Amino acid sequence: MAINPMHQFEVYRIGPEINLGTVNLSFTNASLFMIISAITILFLLFLGTKKKLLIPSKTQFITEMSYTFIAKMINDTAGSGAKSFFPFIFTLFMFVLFCNMIGMLPYSFTVTSHIIVTFMLAATVFIGVTIIGFIKHGIKYLELFVPKGVPIILLPLIIVIEIISYLSRPVSLSVRLFANMMAGHTMLKVFGGFVISLGLLGGWLPLGFSVALTGLEILVAFLQAYVFAILTCIYLNDALNLHH
Amino acid sequence: MKNLKEISTRLEIAKKKIKKKQIKNNGSNVASLGKALKISTELVAAVVVGTALGFILDNWLDTRPWLTISFFIMGVVAGILNVIKSAKKMHKNFKK
Fold first, then answer.
1. Which chain B residues are within 8 Å of A179, Cβ to Cβ?
2. Is A1 within the bounds of a domain?
3. Which residues of A touch chain B, with CB atoms under 8 Å apart?
4. Helix and strand numbers, DSSP H then E, in chain A
5. Domain range for A234
6. Lowest mean pLDDT among A179-193, A212-226, B12-26, B75-89
7. Could you say which of A55, A168, A230 has the minimum Cβ distance to residue B78?
8. Residues near A7 by Cβ (< 8 Å), separated by ≥ 6?
9. Which of A6, A197, B60, B73 has its CA 20 to 30 A from that of A110?
10. What domain count does chain A have?
11. Residue-level pLDDT at A25
């Protein structure tokens, strides 16, 4: 029985060690679970779109629901101009959601509880949005850092503050997802450990907590995927429509 | 054909029910919890980024510790600004 609550976050190598120069490219359990989530998404969407019934089956219903959910979210937050980014945001949402949800299964590994994974996702969004902003508005995109109606004496200070605020976006995006997932899973493990150490006599209370926390964690898993996607939409909106 | 008509009436009824529910729990759903989580990390992230930026610049320009201190303060300001901005945005959306 692994009592150490952080043991579940350990990344280990599966199969042979692959080195590309100084970069270690070995296949790990993290890679395995990313592939599992990707395949699960593909499988679900394939099943859901195979038979197009008027009265949808359960899988078709889930597929259609996830489509309308994201489409509506993009329309509400980023406007109709962002329709062409639907595939990216849908992929992002589904990937984060399935990584979180598959991490909830016993004996599995939560990919999103590692900050490097979430930071890569957030950095992709951040760099992509910045490039889109520059393509759309050219050098005018820098006006984002200059709020209107600021006295000229204060301008250097304000610009630095705005730049810090802009650079904090990927950090807040990645830390939020990573911290929520890791804290939740650690807490579950700690309460699970209490059940074992208190035994048959006093173990019932932490067991109840564990059950309640599992429910909460499933909510958080969905919520964090949702927040990740909606913030991507908001950043996209800032890049597409400069003044609002 | 009769089947289709029945479905459409059932759909109408279901849509009305959903509308009623949406009016009832306006604002007290999952999205609000998401917003709360969003604001809390925004404040912290700006402070972290500001301090890190100051630290890097300090090492680069050999001015330790002044830039770290001033960038820390600016990071705090940026964090508070972030929170105010997103709170304003939420307010605007809520009014709609």
1. 41
2. no
3. 54-55, 157, 160-162, 164-165, 167-169, 171-172, 175-176, 179-180, 219, 222-224, 226-227, 230-231, 234
4. 6, 2
5. 7-240
6. B12-26
7. A168
8. A189
9. A197
10. 1
11. 85
Q: B68 to each of A112, A164, B46, how far by Cα in Å?
A: 31, 13, 14
Rg over CA atoms, chain A: 22
d(CA A217, CA A211): 10
**Number of domains making up chain B:** 1
Give contacts of B33 with chain A, Cβ < 8 Å.
Answer: 223
CB contact under 8 Å between B38 and A227, yes or no, is yes
Per-residue confidence band for B26, with pLDDT thresholds at 50, 70 and 90: low
Q: Is residue A2 part of a domain?
A: no
Q: Which domain, by its residues, includes B90?
A: 2-95
Which of A97, A155, A165 has the highest number of chain B CBs within 10 A, making it the mutation to test binding with B?
Answer: A165
Q: Which two three-digit tokens encode residue A138? A: 């050219």
The two tokens of residue A180 are 């929520």
On chain A, the residues whose CB falls within 8 A of the CB of B79 are 165, 168
pLDDT digits (tens, 9 = 90+) for A32-51: 999 999 999 999 999 988 88
**Residue A63 placed within a domain:** yes
Q: Nearest Cβ partner of B38 from A161, A168, A231?
A: A231
- Nearest Cα of chain B lies from the Cα of A162 at a distance, in angstroms, of 7
The pLDDT tens digits of the residues spanning A101-116 come to 999 998 889 999 999 9
Is residue B65 within a helix (H) or strand (E), and if so which, with residue range? none
- Nearest CB to B45 within list A162, A175, A226: A175
Q: What is the DSSP letter of A198?
A: H
pLDDT digits (tens, 9 = 90+) for B30-41: 667 777 778 888
Q: Is A151 domain-assigned?
A: yes
Judged by DSSP in three states, A140 sits in: helix
